Input
Amino acid sequence: MSRARRHHVLRELLASEAVSTQEELVSGLARAGLAVTQATVSRDLAAIGAVRGSDGYHLPGDPGGGTALATAPTDGSRIRGVIREHAVSVEPAAALVVVRTAPGHANFVATELDAARPTGMVGCIAGDDTIFLATASDREAGRLTDRLRNMMDGEQG
Output
């Protein structure tokens, strides 16, 4: 079985039904003819950027189960909530801003940042628990760091 096929089926499962545990995903994959272990599901969830919220697992851009990016609020409240819930730290690094998240959350947060396009950010790259945000200058990096830290603290940002 190919990794790409497992990822595709996992995305379909997460998009079509509420999933609370990795064991449920193991069962769902088995119904699709893909026998895997919980450890494989765990690695695959991280690889596709899925995150676990209070109501189960969700794909990036769908933290509330059914709230697609296309319907996200445009007032910035969504990104404030995402940063507050998932960011661990925000630090400037020359013309970059480094955002640390819980393991496996960086892709989700980066997707939200790309959608929100905070002032000063020109692009981002995400790993497993780290995001690099490119800015136009050291000064812009400092400003963006301040805004993101305010979001982490629950302020307007």
